[in-house]
Amino acid sequence: MAFSTWKHIPAAGDAPAFRVFEGHLEKPALDDRQYRLLELHNGLRAVLVHDQAADKAAASLTVTIGNMLDPGSEKYPSESDYHSFISANGGIRNAVTGPPSTEYWFSISPTALAGGLERLADLHCAPLFTESLTAREVNAVDSEFKRNWQNDVRRVLQVEKTLSIPGHPYSKFGTGNYESLTAAGRRLGQDVSEEAVLKETRRRLVEWWKNQYCASRMMLAVIGKESLDELTNLVIPLFSKIANRGLDPRPAFKNDAWGPEHMGTVVFVQTVKDYHAFSLTFQLPDLREHYATKPASFLAHFLGHEGPGSICAYLKKRGWLLDFSAGVSGSSRSVQFFEISGRLTLEGYLHYRDVIRAVYSYIALLRASFPLEAYHFDEVKTMAETRFRFKEKAQPHKYASALAHGLAEPYPPEWLLSGAYLYREYDEALVKGILEGFVPGRGRIVLEAKEHRAEVMGDDVVWETEKWYGTQYAVKRLDESFHQALGEPKKNEELHLPAPNPFIPKDLSVDKIDVNEASRHHISSSPVLTFESGYQPAKYPALIKRTEKSQLWYKKDVQFWVPKAYVKIDIKTPLAYATPRLAMLTRLFVDLVEDALAEVTYDADLAGLSYSVINQIEGLTVSVGGYNDKIHVLLRTVLDKLRGLQVHPDRLRVLKEKIQREYENFYMGQPSGLSECYATWAFMPTIWTPAEKLLELSLIKESDVSSLRDELLSRAFVEALVNGNMTRERAIEILDVAEQSLNYRPLVPSEIPRQRSLVLPPASNVISRKRHANPKEVNSSLSYYLQFGEVTDVKLRTTLAFIVHILREPCYAMLRTEEQLGYVVACSQWSINGTVGLGVKIQSTRAPWYTESRVDAFLEKMSERIAAMPADEFATQKEGLIVKTLERAKNLGEETVRFWGHIRSGYYDFVKRETDADAIRALTLAEVIRVYDTLVRPSTSAQTRKKLSVHLLSQQLHEEPPAPGPPTIVLSEADTGSNSSDTRMALFKSGLGCAPAATPVISAAFGEHAPAFDFYRPSASDASLVSPGRNHTALVPGAGTGPGPDTESGGAP
């Protein structure tokens, strides 16, 4: 924008000069934050955000160039100082790299923002680049590469990068490994030492930093409670020190990445996992200056549509397609492509030419439809405006990241917040111009499959090997007849442009009433907390209806003021997971429902509504959310389909194929994810593995699914939550709609499923060993779990939370950074169906028994550190944990997830965070040491610890495990075959006891229905809540899905 909108602020004392933007920022209607845009004298641009209500501060620094390690700094030379400071003060941090930029972000307690900013600035003012750190970071990059070596997404992307113009930045190896990073050093000579190689690597790294890192390439976003003047006074002196080397502030890839030889081709790629997929990609021109019209995104509205008449709908009807997407890939400053892609069935793969013909037929239809009817652009523009108008707050580190990236875009300052969202005008000529480039001679087809068929590939196939991942691929030119057919596609009568969207919301009014009046109005039906200043908004939902068939939780939003609502409905039935066959049938039923709804509900998705149907161990969960104007229409549509599903043989066949591949590929996943899953299963009394359910899949017919539908929904218990811009009466109507649509009878109370956790006895030392299914996977994994006890023990669970809080960063620093055990190293708190514990996971090329020994050594070493912890550090760590614990939901969706987690857990402990914060404040170091020595420290807890570890072994690991000690139980598949460990684990589990099922924590939330739960009545604010070990049988329906109330549980395994 014009220079006149910027005001020059001269230097004053030690503060350098800077410029401040004086124009008006376009903001969402609900955004009550204050903003200030600055340009420092060194060219760095910053946006400062004053948020008086912030319970977390955050900052993000985006550099418009590639990656740099966290090098330590002159003022803070310790490599872990930055990370430790953030963690101790209740924060999180990360660095993320992409082709055009690198991002360094953190969130932290608002009182510690200044310290975080000082450390972030110093990392870029005066980095150290020590030789030891450089060597470790090179190894860390190599570990990340090995982690992703069998990742098909990475492998296919690197093939596509290889098939571009040599020397173009896009053609480079995207992530790096030890070989690529040290290549220059190894060119010094064959006899050069490893130390010399790494010294040369460090020299080149420092040289690259001096040549590429520059203040004018940096964009900073800071969010805090401080005033804008205070934030300005923090930022200016700290970040003005960064050198400006006069470089291009927004370097971009300006040349095409493809030459003529790279277009008009078909690329066949062999995958690790067993699936079939296609993509059709076109290179886009530079569209950075067209942010007001967003022509490529507008085209994606048509080509990626999934409603009637779309490419997606047509291909699904033919039985060729599983999922579909279309849109822009790549950053605006990098190479951008328009990609149309999808997962195919085997039949779709065999008919890939027909799939591509359908895409080009739709492109031809779209070209022939210009000038487009006005409603197409109007709907896209309207929904973009609506989304921006009612844009809610997000997690502060995510928002800071988005703002910093926005500063790197060419938006005028006034549009920093809105530039990525709004369509301001329609440029049909530009849209048509881009579409004219979507022709066969300028496209590239990629076909992915584990095994490519000869009848698909044709003759004269020459296989090549990609350098870094070893991926096999072959390239062929489009044959002349196929090329001509695509260029002149026949008209397809089943394809047409989208009709007007009936789900576009018309009523966006918010039932906004005075907070004090709202609290008084809802005091009998919605719990509130009262302070001296008067009534406050309801903090959690109220149980407003309860019958033998259902119960309904409801909260009217008086905080976020958006025209949205969320509806969650649990349909509980013991049949859903009673046997492997019933579990498989339920999964198929859910997939068929979503498949049947796909065309109808896509318009709802475009109009800001969403839904899901998920199979759980306890039954089904139906979720609907978004703008409340049409939410009842979508819910009725989903429930009617659930009850009246017609099973079509062709769709059943397609979905059976999809599930079979999904379940088979499950065992080819990341080792760390698999070992975590196996460890979780070890504590669940009943679990049906993918392999066990697959035994039933081939035996299932259409009539089986129809029978399951009728029986599954004939008797149930329904528990629902309505949260948002909806009246109490409307919420009750929604429950009535659910009961009428499902038309079910009640369950006997003892039939209602309740999950429980198995309990290890004291002195347990259990090891479960399995082999990874992928013979080429080089990584093994360790999941190390220490079971503490029941979640109802407030003192125990908060002591655990504190222990995990103080272990998390040292675990990463010692085992990953210093010992270089692997890229994936993490310490976390586990929650499994009512029990809690401490978990450590490590994915490594080293043997799991070795990494377990290093975990034991780490835990032993940390006992000394904890025992010697100074009082001030202990207080700081406690306060940091309290900040995390009391962090508020930032939007209606987050709040709903929290409420639903408490409801599904069966505890209904809506003030658990406040209870825990009080318990943490009262926690003493002596209590922490006592629990640590009893349940964690290996040398002092042999008779009291309850440990289970899963060793997932790479098939390339040929090392023999050491002989176990006397108290160790080893459940290994290595002796008698791949299924023996499941048998041994089942026998082992059969000898364990169970923790009690979830027992409700009675509070004002239960209102008039509290007496029905009054067999035992702990207070929500009572630190003891439920006495440890006391077995209380729940008298009301509780899902019992574990004490993790702040995350929504996923579907059944």
What do these coordinates show?
This protein is of the alpha+beta class and 1053 residues long. It contains 32 helices and 32 strands. It is 37% helix and 19% strand. The protein has an eight-stranded mixed β-sheet with strand order 1-2-3-4-8-5-7-6. Helix 20 (631-644) runs parallel beside helix 25, helix 21 packs antiparallel against helix 23 (690-697) and helix 26 crosses helix 30 (912-922). Mean pLDDT is 91; it is low at 518-535 and 1017-1050. Residues 804-900 form the Coenzyme PQQ synthesis protein F-like C-terminal lobe domain. This is Insulin-degrading enzyme. InterPro entries: Metalloenz_LuxS/M16, Pept_M16_N, Peptidase_M16, Peptidase_M16_C, Peptidase_M16_M, PqqF-like_C_4.
